[in-house]
Amino acid sequence: DGLTKTGWFIFSMLMIAFLATDMISGCKFMYHSSKVRHTLVSRIRWFVAGLCMCSVTIFSFYVSTVYNQIVSKNNADLIVNSVIILFVMEIDERVFSALAALNGKWTASHVDYSDSSSASEIEEMKEKIESQEKELGILHSQQKEITLRMEEMKKQTDEIASQASESTHQCAAKESMTTIAAESKDSRSDTVAEKG
User: Fold this and answer.
1) What is the pTM of this model?
2) How far apart are CA 82 and CA 92, in angstroms?
3) How confident is the model at residue 176 (pLDDT cuts 50, 70, 90)?
């Protein structure tokens, strides 16, 4: 019989079905490490965890492939060996689940640690938001103050413009009165000269 493309296809589907979750989780960890909202330490932890998960997943797929090329003589051996390898890789998760079922306190510290780090990150974000809100409040009050000053300056400018307009009208009125008076004086002196 020997190994055929069908056997390798089934092997690949089994490996992908079991390893895809770890690969996707590792990629998500690395993606979350790029988020600026996390602290530098947590970003490094996210990246290292994601890199390790992806590396172990790829390495497992590679080692399983090489191992099966060397050991397996037919398709049945290939599938049996891959199932055994995948079972061995899943043992740690099964042990963790069993411990959690047996006594939740044994595994609670792991969950509490992630909750406490999330809580500290949330507190840091709240503090940043509060400080930014304070800065916005200060800027808003400064903006109101500037707006009030501008309105006062506009009122003063309008008052000065109206006073200037009144002064101009008064000057024009005085000038016209002076001109009229001068013209009437000239016309009187002309009439007196003509009579004389």
Assistant:
1) 0.48
2) 17
3) confident
